[in-house]
Structures are given as structure tokens and as C-alpha cells.
Amino acid sequence: MWALLVLIGAASVSAHLQDPSFDGQKVFRVIPQNDEQVEILSFLASTMEVDFWQPDSVTRVRPKMQVDFRIEAEKSFKVEDLLKENGMKYQVLIDNVQAALDAQFDSKVRAAGHSYEKYNNWDTIAAWTADIAAQNPDLVSRSVIGETYEGRPIYLLKLGKSGSNKKAIFMDCGFHAREWISPAFCQWFVKEAVETYGKDTVTTTLLDKLDFYVLPVVNIDGYIYTWTNDRMWRKTRSKNSGSTCRGTDPNRNFNAGWCTLGASKSPCASTYCGSAPESEKETKALADFIREHLSTIKAYLTIHSYSQLLLFPYSYTYNLPQNYQELNSIASAASKELASLYNTKYTYGPGAETIYVAAGGSDDWAYDQGIKYSFTFELRDTGRYGFLLPESQIKPTCEETLLAVKYIANYVLEHLY
Predict the structure, then answer these.
(1) Other CB atoms within 10 Å distance of the CB of residue 76
(2) Model pTM greater than 0.90?
(3) What residue spans define the domains of the chain?
(4) How far is residue 171 from each of residues 22, 191, 369, measured CA to CA in Å?
(5) Which fold has domain 26-103?
(6) Would you tell me the crossing angle of helices 394-414 and 181-196 to the nearest 10 degrees?
(7) Which of 192, 282, 378, 400 is catalytic?
(8) Is 378 an active-site residue?
(9) Is the preceding omega at residue 123 within 30 degrees of 0, hence cis?
């Protein structure tokens, strides 16, 4: 009976994700060699719906940059013809997006409830936040720091042994709705903390001496929408006045060079900056919490996907942060730690220089608030699966990322300010 229920559950998941139909949609990778080829990609984006995966907007495309984008099934032949006509080398990363969607759910663990090795929907994650706090009362507590546009509570977990004058590290996951590996990491991090406390000396010391605030999903409404309506949704689900297009990019919605470079003023764009800084209830709740706890929060970590990067400020300007050398050496050492397990190679550096300029990001904002150690992780992979990383990669991805996070946390503990 259980097996049948589990099968029905798995089937309903893929049935849910059939809509809109991704059948026959393709993901292309192109590396434009010059400005003319960049222009061709801009022309493409202006004449048909193109979903840019990497970078996240056509305006960020530069010569010699790797560009990944998704295209509707019936347009894919036109796109191939256009690329060929203009002598542009390309490869098809994903031949059929629907097949890749279905193939994500390849975990051998088909538990009916929560599992750390599969993608959990929001209801399952919300229930898990209550359970993990109830089962580990001396290590974990749960609070609500606000509510989403659609009225859902935003849960925050606090990890650590109770003590006086403790400094803290803030970590969030699930800014962009379709980056499912991100919330999976926040859950994994909490699991490791409670399971290894008292056994692993590093974890024990960290939890004795620091608190960790973990926000498992920032963009809850968007995340739910990726399970029910559109697996490729990125933004929040707020209504935009004067437009039928919904949502704001929550990671362009912070007051850090807000809506200048690398963010769009168009409500239909995937990088829409919103009507004002912190216009989104989700970003406002996060920013308010950090402002209220500025005296204790000493590091900010935000988890995204994909492309295997460890970034630090700035993204909204090419100016380097004051403690550039220090951040660069932390990122270098943390990337080495991460690679030590499965040899996964990360690129690290300041956001603007390392990938592209993008204004209004949470990491830059946190840094400008005085949080000296501010990092963005872009988890696996480098594009073979993109946002559709199979569940079988959750465990290795989380295990290696944990090494880097523990390295950073330990560094922060030894360099409290």
C-alpha cells in the first residue's frame, strides 16, 4: 500500500510539473565571440520569449561569456538556424526540459514525508521546521519574522546552545524560486548541526560559541508556484500595479545600488527590481530582522544556484570592498575545503568582476550594513542540469558545501569584531 501511495505521490509531482508544458523545450549554451554575436542574442531575446539561465538577463551578455538559455519547443529550430547562419558555435545542454524535470526526482528515498535527500515541497518544509525545533529544544528554536505577499508565515530557525552575548551568522536559502538545491542545503545544514553536535568538535564549538539563524526559504510563494504551476518561476508572486506581469526579483530588491546596473525597471523582466527597495514583504522581513540584530550578526551567507561560485561584495559596483584581501583569502580557502571531498571546482571573487554587475543584492546590502563577512554561494552544477539538478546530487552537493560553510563560520568565530 505504501509503495502505491509513494508512486502516486511521485506521479502527482510530475503531473503537477507538466504545466506549462516543457515538452520539447531546449536549453542552449552559446559563447558569443564578439559584439555582433552578442547583438544576435539581444535580437533573439527581443523577438521571442527567451529564459536566460546564465547570466540571468540578456543585458548582462558580453563577448566570450558562457550563455545558457531556455527556449520554447516550436522556436528551437528557428534558434538553431539563426545560430548556424551567423556562425555561432552552440551546444544543446538539455534536449527536452520536461524529461529533465521528471528526471530530477531520481532519489532512491521516496519517503512519504520529509527527506534530506529529495526535494521537499513547502508544506513538508514548514512541518519540518516545527518538528526539528520540537525534537531539539536545547539546540533549535523557530520563530516567524514576517509573512509573504500571499500571507504565509516566514519561518526562521535559530541554532545554538543558549549562552550570553553570543555573536551570530545569518544564512538564507530559496531567494529564487526555481533554485531548488538551495533550500535543500539549508535543511541539510540544520540536520548536520543537530546530528553532529557533541560528536564533531568543530560543530560543537561553533554551536557553543555562535548562534546560526537559518531562513530555509525566503521566497515561499514563488517556491510553491514552482511546484504547482511553473517549475521555471524565479521571482516573488506580488502584483505589480499597471502590469499584468507578476513578481519582483527579491535579489534585486535591496537598497544596495538599487535598480542601477544589472536590474530591470520592467515588471515583466526576470530581474525586475520592484517599485522601491524592500517593496517585497519577504525582503523587508529579512532586512528588518538583520537590522534589529546588527550588533550580533557577524556574517551573512546566502545560498543560490547554479554555476559553482563563491562570491563576495561588490556586485553593484566594480569597487572592491575594504577588506578585499581578507574576503578573497577566505573564499579561496573555503573553495579548497569544498573541493577536498568530490573535487568540485568553484570560482571565487567579487561578484561584479567574477560574473557580472547586479544591483540590489542581499549580500552587498548586508556588507554595507557593516557585516564584514558576506558571501554568496552558487551551488552545483555548471549547466549540465542547471536549475534541474537531480535529487541524487543533493547529498554530495550539501556535503561539500557544508565544508566551506564550516570553514567560513570557524574563521568568523576566530575573528570576531
Answers:
(1) 18
(2) yes
(3) 26-103, 122-414
(4) 32, 14, 16
(5) Alpha-Beta Plaits (3.30.70)
(6) 60
(7) 378
(8) yes
(9) no
